[in-house]
Amino acid sequence: MLNILGLDALSEEIYRTMLAHPDRGIDGLTELVGASEVRVRQALERLSELSLISTSAGVEGFRVLNPETAVDRLLARQESELATARMRLEATKAAATELLAAYSTLRPPLDDRDFERLVGPEEIRHRLAAFGTSAEEEVMTFAPGGGHPEEDLAASRRPNTRLLERGIRMRTIYLNSLRNHQPTLHHVRWLSERGAEVRTAASLPVRMIVVDQRQAVLPLQRDDARAGAVLIRSEATVAALCALFESIWDEARPFGSEPALDDHGLSGQEAEVIRLLAEGLTDQAIAKRLGVSHRTARRIAADLMERLNARSRFEAGVRAVQQGWIAAQ
């Protein structure tokens, strides 16, 4: 029952046994729970690490804490771990986003062996198709833009089929807005039925494909994937892009699952809109990030401002921070 709070089954059983039989020693606990002395001692060490038992007179020098105090400590520990994980996640996103910004500004050198420029849609498609035979373990993809051109979806099916038939793991993150575009929605269902793993997010930082965590393909222009792309083999750069993918994958919603609201009653898309509003983005820029129409972005923004009782975007950002909708910058 307490495994969700970090307590394994044997440790929980021993904790409950100690509450009922506080005078039993190691031998007594071993007999009552039916476990070896080694496992009982390991469980006691785990309980001690979690501060559920303390050094005192009692079972082999341990005193068991009452359940109310024990649960409070477990909750406090998990809250601390979640806060630390959140900080680490935000730091990872910030570092990866900074990397992408620097990449788009500086451009990789053409004669660097770690970078190879791909010119035009045909060359990009040819290289992506080659991944269907060269990939050995996994292909990870960011697919922003909401609805995708039907010709692009059709062109991707042959290499995707090759990958899945060879047992290659495929993980793709689309935008939540794909549900409003039937051809893309049909394609995602086609992928899922064949074993691909698909999740959706409110927004994505860039279009990206990573193969075997060794090479990645990014567009030369963030807003125009057809203008050209670069194939990246730099170990450090690919590692950062993989970290960015994993951080967004962990927060993305599995395709087909019911939309979830956060503690403030916001959908993932609404939470992203209020964050982008606070950053000062226009409705048009927000629409592009979310893969929705300008009208839809404007409607969502207006609704959020009304819920926050804000008369301007700046005021909406301030009120969103005050109410805990977004973190202070």
Automatic annotation (TrEMBL):
Residues 259-324 form the HTH luxR-type domain. One of its GO terms (biological process) is regulation of DNA-templated transcription. Coiled coil: none annotated. Pfam families: GerE. One of its GO terms (molecular function) is DNA binding. SMART domains: HTH_LUXR. It comes from the Bacteria. This is HTH luxR-type domain-containing protein. It comes from Streptomyces filipinensis.
